[in-house]
Every structure is written in C-alpha cells, then in structure tokens.
Amino acid sequence: MLKMKEEALKIKEEIIKIRRLIHANPELGFEEWQTSKLVSAYLNSLGLEVQEGIAKTGVVGFLEGNNRNKVLAIRADMDALPIQEQNKFEYKSKNKGKMHACGHDAHTAMVLGVAKLLSKFKAELEGSVKFIFQPNEEQSKIPGGADTMIEEGVLENPRVEAILGIHVNPQIEVGSVGIKEGSIMAATDKFKIIVKGEGGHGAAPHETIDAIIIAADIVQNLQAIVSRRISPVEPVVLTIGKVCGGESYNVIADEIQIEGTVRTVNPEIREQIPMLMEQTIDGVTDIFGGDYRFDYQFGHSVLNNNRELTNLVTEVSKIIIGEEKSIILKNPLMAGEDFASYTKEVPGFFLHLGVKNSERKIYPWHHSKFNLDEEALPIGTAILAQSAIEYFKNV
Ligand SMILES: [Zn+2]
Ligand SMILES: [Zn+2]
C-alpha cells in the first residue's frame, strides 16, 4: 500500500498542474465545457473508454480491470461558483465573476490522478472502475449534476456496485483526513415565504396590515422551532438569509419576502419541519389578519457513509498516512452535497481531505480567498486509488 503513496508522490506535480489549470479557468454548473474537454482528453490519453456529454458536460471514463462486471465508481465534481476571486497568485481565476472556491478543481485533478495510477496497476484490479466527472454540484440550476447523471444512466451498463467521493476540507490540517460512518453531510432544503399585508400611510397603522411587523415575528418565531419544538440532541439549522420588502420610510409595507434554508440529519425530523414552519407562519399571520404564501423545497438528501466502505477506507488511510492522521469525525457537517444522490442508489463513502495549513490563513469554502494546501492532493489520490484495489479484494 505504501507503494501507492510513492506512486502518487511521483505524479504530484502533474496533479497540481492540472488543478491550477482548472482553477485558472473556472466554469459554472452545466457550462464546464473546457474542463470536461480537458478531462476527456486526459482519460483518452490513458486508454480508458470515454463517454462524453452525459448531463451536458459530464464525462465518464471506464477502466476495465480483471472483471468487467464488478464495478466501483469514483466521482469528482467539476463546477465553480459565481464568486469574484480575490486571491493574487498567478493561477487565479481568469474568468470574471467565477471561481473554484469549493475545491472542485482539486477533486477533478485528484480523480484524474487516480485514473492514471489505477491504469498503471490494472493487473491488480479484480474489477473495473468507472470514473465519474459530473457537472453542477453547486446546484446553480435544478436538477443538479448528480441527479441528471444518474437519470442518464451513469450507474448502469455495467452496473455500479459502490461509489467513492472526496471533498477538500479547510477545517482539517493538511496530511490528515476526516472519516465518519453514517451521516456525514446534511440534508439541505430551501424555503420562501411571502407575507401579505395591506399598505397605507405610515402615520395610520391601524388602517393597514403591516407586513414588516408580521415578517419580524415570523423570523423570531421560526427560531423557536429549533430551540423549542425539536429535541435538543437532533441537529437542525434554520437560517433566514434574505428578507426584502417595503417601498419608503413613511409607507406601511404590503408585502415582504423571506428566504432561507433548513439543514437536518434525521429524515423523520426533516419531514416534520415544513409542517412546523407552516403552523408558525399561519399562526403569526393570523394574529395580524394578514396572509402568506409558503413554498418549501426539498434539496439534497443526507449523505450517509456505508459501514463496510468506511471500514475499508479507514484501514487504507491508516496505512498510507497513519492512524493518528486518520481522524474519526464525531459530527456531520451541516452543509449539503449532491454525492448523496448516488448513495441513495448504491453504497457510498465520502472522504474529507484536510487542506488547512496553520502557518498561513486558509479561508472557508465559498470565500473569495479560498485556497488549499496542495500537499494534500497526492494523499487523496493515493487513498482513493488504494481503496479501489482493496475494494475488489474484499467483495
Ligand atoms: Zn460548495
Ligand atoms: Zn463542494
């Protein structure tokens, strides 16, 4: 297994070069045309069977090992975010208002590295590997990349048995990885509330229905769902990220829009939330004689790491980077991830790769100065590649 670490270190510069090239040329969801061209050219150069144009810009590379019908998938996402990059290094984004601020450039580069390593060790592969490069993880357009890839048959022909994924994590020190069985990323839903009142003169509130007052009470009382109606040991986040409405300082507003997101880990709690929210919205609006429209949209499901795959990757990680660097995470992250869509179909495992460097400031995901310590890239590559080899020994 340590051989794989050495092999990954040998291609480290190449992986970094690919990552920087993708970083400098970020593309948004379903528009990853250049990135997907780069990916398919690389996979073709390795001699893989390559399929392009799945879910518009998605690419799949198939590496046939000793058994064509035993298939493990490894997935990378390719999309960037609509953020103007503030970093100053020479490979900063060349595309105005677009940036790889979530590390998908690194995921794509690493999984290409895995394809290269496994091509070299094809003789040791007791099955075959499907490399999935998907568009639009960030869901700039609905439906997202993973769902569209699945719909277009990426898990079929030949059928995928299990899937591995990876995400860089700026909260974990470089050199380490974060591992957790069960829920690792939250279910992410979004909602919109339109509060309807009746406008009028600011000096005569008794002749109006003030939508701002109703909205303010709704904002306050929605927080009480988390603190008073859900068990304190169940993780739930209810965030309101946008409130807008009103026309002028001396006019009572007749309509306010409220938008937010709900994050949960327990599917039963998730089911209850829209009903609890509507009770609050309905009750508060009723007090003031107003009206409302409430729209709740279920997004990504919770991402659950399969037990056997977790054990397998943990063992590989312990050998490649050591036990103390294979950190067992206690809690899931309350962010979402569309890798969850694959794990609803087949057993999956999602690895968190440490990219934090305490000696310099690393900004959080989706920050205009997000960057990562590239020393992590060969580590992620080696763990995924070796896990694929071990997977077929175990099944
Ligand atoms: Zn992201
Ligand atoms: Zn991401």
From TrEMBL:
- MF terms per GO, please? hydrolase activity; metal ion binding
The record, for Gene3D superfamilies, names: 3.30.70.360, Zn peptidases
| Annotated Peptidase M20 dimerisation domain residues | 191-281
Q: What's the record's note on cofactor binding?
A: The Mn(2+) ion enhances activity.
Q: Give binding positions for Mn(2+).
A: C102, H104, E138, H167, H366
Listed cofactors: Mn(2+)
Give the UniProt keywords, A-Z. Answer: Hydrolase, Manganese, Metal-binding
SUPFAM superfamilies xrefs: Bacterial exopeptidase dimerisation domain, Zn-dependent exopeptidases
Annotated NCBIfam families: amidohydrolases (TIGR01891)
What family does the database annotate?
Belongs to the peptidase M20 family.
Could you identify this protein by its name? Amidohydrolase
- Supply the source organism for this entry: Orenia marismortui
